[in-house]
Amino acid sequence: MYKLGEILEVKIVGIRDYGLFIQDKKGRKGLIHVSECDNQYIRNMHHTFDIGEKVQAVVMEDDGNRRFALSIRALKETKGNLSKYPRPINFYVNHKHFWTKSHYDAGFKPLAEHLEGWKAEKLK
């Protein structure tokens, strides 16, 4: 089982419009969702990635069994230096782990602060 935030080198074994199927050196299979492949829109995954290509990615989720989820985008955004960032925090939204900053605890407060203004603007 991998730790959240661990950096792995994996091989692409399948490409779909919704993401990359990858395999680690131990033979475990995982997925890199299209939204985690780059910080920009990818029009065609087949033009960006190749089967057999090795990529580095950071572990976002590991269920402890056979499957795990990775992110190339998170690794690019941190420029590969995860030591400057706090350890990833797990919180569940449809059983997905998200990489967040530990001091950020705003919840719905920003939405609540702007809601009345948005309503008034829409009613104009």
From TrEMBL:
GO biological process assignments: translation
Any matching Pfam family: S1
Coiled coil: none
UniProt superkingdom: Bacteria
The S1 motif domain, residue ranges: 5-73
Gene Ontology molecular function, alphabetical: mRNA binding; structural constituent of ribosome
Gene3D superfamilies given in the database record: Nucleic acid-binding proteins
Protein name: S1 RNA binding domain protein
Organism in which the protein naturally occurs: Pediococcus acidilactici DSM 20284
GN (gene name): yjbE
